[in-house]
Amino acid sequence: MKTYDFNQQYISKIDKEIAISTDNVQVHYGKSHAIFDASLDFPRFQITSLIGASGSGKSTYLRCLNRMNDKIAQVDGKILYRNTDINSKKINVYEVRRHIGMVFQRPNPFAKSIKDNILFALRNNGINDKNELQKRLETSLKDAALWDEVKDDLDKSALALSGGQQQRLCIARSIAMHPDILLLDEPASALDPISTSKIEETLELLSKSYTIIIVTHNMQQASRISDYTAFFHMGHIIEYNETKNIFTAPEIKATEDYISGDFG
Amino acid sequence: MDDIQTRLQKSSRATRQDYFGKAICYSCIGLIILLVACILYFIASKGLATFTQNGVKFWNFLTQSDWKPGDVDKYGNPQVGALPMIVTSFSVTILAALLATPFAIGAAVFMTEIANKKGAKFLQPVIELLVGIPSVVYGFIGLSLIVPFIRGIFGGTGFGILSGTLVLFVMVLPTITSLSVDSLKSVPMHYCQASLALGATRWQTIYKVILKAAAPGLLTAVIFGMARAFGEALAVQMVIGNAVLMPKNLISPASTLTSKLTTEIGNTVMGTLPNNALWSLALVLLFMSLLFNLVVRFIGRRGNIKNER
């Protein structure tokens, strides 16, 4: 395996409005050090993809951003969202997750109806007005490009949907809460190419009103949909730049090798 | 080529091993089925003799409340009314299950969702130990602690449904708890994550997602606990009072199907009505445990269908 110098880093400055940023984030699983000094700024209303080999820490890093690593790993450092360090112990994690939603690798709808899946979080937050619920149900399913396919079966079990539909349902379920930021952990890796392209179209539409951070194994996907890309290697962020720069003229040798497939 | 052809058609050591292994499995299963069939036949033939040979009407057996199998009433009919025991058995079972279920599910949620690893590791053997304590010990503790306690508070003898319920409560608690723990553990991790990622609190996640997903398993746990309570003889017999009377309240002495069987079976002669009547009680017990099993099966199947869809 080739070895690379982790001190060789290229992190480009972002001159846009920042939605969320991390400052020297460190993650430990017990004694093993999983993420080293991760400092990134994510621009608002843009899609940023995190790429890297398996075990490079990109999913771990993503999960820090809405505190899903609580009780699983030790996360140190600052995560700034609206000028607040949301990694602090005093922060209300439930409130964090209401503003920073997450969609997982495997579609994971609840064994409830489509409607109840979407309305789960809203009802938890005490929204009981029927008109409001109906409106949110419709808009979130439309935003996730699922409305036309399910509008007549809203009371059917969500588990009866295909994998791609289930994943779009999970996206709809997340955006029903109107979060600021949407985190996606390899959302298309369990899906066929047609479902994948539908998810990608959905994400591009959503990026008009949401900040999207997506972990992906698929480099074509990263280059197709994302505006910015960060390359992770063994827990270090090697390069972070606009996607077109990373894929055409990478600054660091490790990035170039990974993108061209001459890696490891 | 010829060699391979013949070997393809001949049996070998490996194929004979297959046959041998299959034969062992089938004979073991056959023996178990035979045993079950024999027990069913024996209890049924003995239990039904009350109605076929001794001329007791089945309906009277279920609905009358006088239990004096040796005597006849003024019309010359034998007095074999099992209603008081059936009522008492159901009362203690249902009350114990009602009392134990909230505690058991609470403990199970604590062990699987709330306690840290050390706490769960400590509680697991405690629960398992409770399952393993012999029922006579429970009965003895009930007799020397619960009965005087109830006598002190409510008066009377202290024997009765309430004492029986309390003893059974402690006995079925670990059964329901450990089965509930298994069912909660089998709820997929991703349900929990999905709920948390949507901003649901821990309580909302437990209440609306985990408990709901585990509901068929929890119901099964409760029914297994009820089956245990229904079939428990010794511990109940020690605290229930053993009087075949229609229970008037929770502290009047009563008798369950099982406690009647254990106290009386030695005092009757095979082939006579008093003995046959006890077999009829056993038949009722057997039928009830079959029913409990069927309910568990039914719930299991419905739960599976729900998960697949």
From TrEMBL, chain A:
In what residue span(s) does the ABC transporter domain sit?
20-259
Which SUPFAM superfamilies does the protein's record reference? P-loop containing nucleoside triphosphate hydrolases
User: Which top-level group of life is the source organism from?
Assistant: Bacteria
Q: Which InterPro entries match?
A: AAA+_ATPase, ABC_transporter-like_ATP-bd, ABC_transporter-like_CS, P-loop_NTPase, PstB-like
- SMART domains (UniProt xref): AAA (SM00382)
Gene Ontology cellular-component annotations: membrane
Name one matching Pfam family. ABC_tran
What's the protein here called? Answer: Phosphate ABC transporter ATPase
Automatic annotation (TrEMBL), chain B:
What start and end residues bound the annotated signal peptide?
none
Q: Which PROSITE patterns match?
A: ABC_TM1 (PS50928)
Record domain ABC transmembrane type-1: where: 86-296
Q: Which UniProt keywords apply?
A: Cell membrane, Membrane, Phosphate transport, Transmembrane, Transmembrane helix, Transport
- InterPro entries per UniProt: MetI-like (IPR000515), MetI-like_sf (IPR035906), Phosphate_PstC (IPR011864), Phosphate_Transport_Permease (IPR051124)
Listed GO MF terms: phosphate transmembrane transporter activity
Q: Give a GO cellular-component term.
A: plasma membrane
Q: What is its main location?
A: membrane
Localisation: Cell membrane
Spell out the PANTHER family in the cross-references.
ABC TRANSPORTER PERMEASE PROTEIN YQGH-RELATED, PHOSPHATE TRANSPORT SYSTEM PERMEASE PROTEIN PST
Q: Which family does it belong to?
A: Belongs to the binding-protein-dependent transport system permease family. CysTW subfamily.
Please report the name of this protein according to its UniProt entry.
Answer: Phosphate transport system permease protein
Per the UniProt entry, what species is this protein from, by scientific name? Companilactobacillus tucceti DSM 20183
